[in-house]
Amino acid sequence: MTTDRPRIVRRDRSEIINAARAAWRHLKSDDKTDFQYWLKIGAALKLGREECLRTAGTNRPSGKRYAKTMNEWLKREHLGDIDQGDRSRLLELMDNLPAISEWRETLTQTERLRLNHPSSVLRKWQKATQRPEPRTNAQSQRTRGRARVANQDAEVEGLREQVRELEAAREAAPADLSVDALIAALEARVPDLPMREQVAIAEKLAAIVQRIAAAHPAPNRRRSGRRTAPGITIRGLNLNARPTADGEEVDSEEEDDRRPRTRSRKAARAL
Fold first, then answer.
1. C-alpha span between 122 and 124 (Å, rounded)
2. CA–CA separation, 96 vs 137, rounded Å?
3. Which has more pLDDT, 170 or 80?
4. N or C: which end of the chain has fewer CB within 10 A?
């Protein structure tokens, strides 16, 4: 099958592949990622895609024959252990590299240093530059369902990425990290998360507080003998607060003060 795709001379091909191998070894051995390393790997993946398209005799990077050819190419070039999802998003990033590079120039230096993984870069670029098309009345239910599934897949991948980042941060963090440092890290991270994730974190922290209070009970503060757990507040979020009937959040201890005091049956009979 003839094709008009330009062929890369062997010397340039070797340089691209060797640079990608070195970059992948660096990313696997170092917790800190660098966007330039991903670009070197992306250049090799684009080269491999072109070679596999020619070998498989197709113009589309899909199908069993192309997938088999690509897997063999990745193993042969020692790039087979790259996550398939990361590889797919990196290729999409490379296909849009001029626009993404222009967009990255609008970011601050701190933002660019923090934005390195291809999944993060691609998602942020799409969110910043691409507007969703308005839905029409003629849009079918099947199309809407596919859109919802795609959004859910994107959310799941975003959560997986956050887990990877948190795990990397946990491995890189010193073992003697102080409580103040942990609280500061939470305060810096939590506001950027969706509200659903913030609530989940608050519930987990509240459960930890309750376990600590149960393991180390404080002295009784009321005659009723009820023990209260210490509260934790992260940027104004009181983990011990509970909503009242009118929607107002009331602390556990304040709620005890509002409850009417009733006499016991024994005291009532004495009267």
1. 6
2. 32
3. 80
4. C
- Residue 11 to residue 43: CA distance in whole angstroms: 15
The confidence score (pLDDT) of residue 94 equals 93
Instruction: Classify residue 126: in a domain, yes or no.
Output: yes
pTM of this structure: 0.45
Rounded to the nearest 10 degrees, what angle do helices 84-95 and 35-56 cross at? Answer: 90
> Same structural domain for residues 74 and 194?
no
Q: What pLDDT is attached to residue 7?
A: 45
* Number of domains composing the chain: 2
Half-sphere exposure of 67 (CA within 13 A, CB side): 5
Task: Answer whether residue 148 is part of any domain.
Answer: no
Burial 60-77 (b: 16+ CB within 10 A, else e): ebeeeebeebbeebbeeb
In a domain, 162, yes or no: no
Tell whether 17 is covered by a domain: yes
CA distance 8 to 176: 52
Q: Which two tokens mark 10?
A: 């062997």
Task: Tell how many helices (H) and how many strands (E) occur in the chain.
Answer: 12, 4
User: Could you report how far apart the first and last alpha carbons of the chain are, in Å?
Assistant: 104
d(CA 65, CA 143): 29
Examine the domain organization and report whether 87 and 182 are in the same domain. no
